[in-house]
Each structure stands twice: as C-alpha cells, then as structure tokens.
Design brief:
The chain is mainly alpha-helical. Among the domains are: 50 residues; 60 residues, Orthogonal Bundle (Arc Repressor Mutant, subunit A), CATH 1.10.10.10. It has a three-stranded antiparallel beta sheet. Strand 2 and strand 3 form a beta hairpin. The protein is elongated and about 70 Å long.
C-alpha cells in the first residue's frame, strides 16, 4: 500500500490499520537486520584493521590498498635461506578460521547459523564453511549449539595466583 486512499480507509478501516501495522512491523524487522549487519561489518572492519596491524605493521592509513604496489623486501644473503624474521603469511588474507573466530568472538553469547556467518563474511560456499565450523567445534574453538548453529566458546579464566 503505497498511498493511503480515503476510500479504502472508509471501506475497511480495521483492515487498513492491520495492514499498516504489519507493514510497520516488517519494516522494523528489516531495519533491525540492517542495523545488525552494519554492526557486524563495523566489527569486521575493526578486526581486519587490528589483524593488518598485527601481521604487517601497517595502520589503516598507511596500509597498502588493492592494486597498490608493495615495496619489495631486500633479497636475503643466501637465497636458499629466508631471513629469520620473514613472515610467510605477510600480505595474505586472514585464514577463514581466524575470520570466523573473530566474528563469533565479537558477541560470544550469540548463536550463529552457518549461513549468517557466511553472509557476514561475504562467503558464498556455506557448505565448506559448515565443514570448517564443525572442525573448529571438534577442536574446541567453537561450541556447536544445534544443527548448523555455533557460538564462541566461553571465555577461559586464568587460575587465581597463589
């Protein structure tokens, strides 16, 4: 109902009100979903920035962007031996399991469906994501709460000193 026609209201006022309330409810639900996605995207952006800082030493402001050439590190003195401080994962995207753990860790009480995690992370293959999340649950990195549903494990507490 895009326009409110006086004839429709006069003919069936309760029906019009019921439809408007349903439309209002649906819009509020959709808005809540969008707000949740904004929050997840914000958390992922922060986690990615932290990850980038940890793995590359770049802040967001000086991080290389897609298509930007990265400086070439100097060649090691012995080509067969990489330097001791060489990080073989530098410049590579975070592994999926790290992305999943970071996402679920943002709200440990929330139960996530595999499809929701895939959507939040922009992953199309939810079947392989489900396999990964099941493996993570088997290893204790996630808690399986039901069929295709997972959450972050409860935080571990350090034993009290002395």
């Amino acid at each position: 109902m895009t326009e409110l026609a006086a004839e429709a209201v006069l003919a069936d006022p309760e029906g019009v009100l019921r439809r408007l309330r349903t439309q209002h409810h649906d819009l509020e639900r959709d808005l809540a979903i969008v707000q949740q996605r904004i929050e997840v995207a914000s958390r992922l952006t922060r986690a990615a920035a932290e990850w980038r800082q940890l793995t590359t030493g770049h802040d967001d402001g000086d991080a290389p962007h897609a298509g930007q050439r990265q400086p070439v590190p100097p060649a090691p003195t012995d080509p067969a031996q990489p330097p001791e401080d060489a990080d073989p994962t530098a410049g590579q995207p975070a592994p999926r399991r790290v992305l999943v753990a970071n996402l679920l860790g943002q709200d440990p009480a929330r139960v996530w469906r595999v499809s929701e995690v895939g959507q939040a992370l922009g992953l199309d293959n939810t079947k392989s994501l489900g396999v990964l999340m099941a493996e993570m649950a088997d290893r204790g990195a996630l808690v399986k709460t039901g069929s295709g549903c997972y959450q972050a494990p409860p935080p571990t507490t350090a034993p009290a000193a002395g």
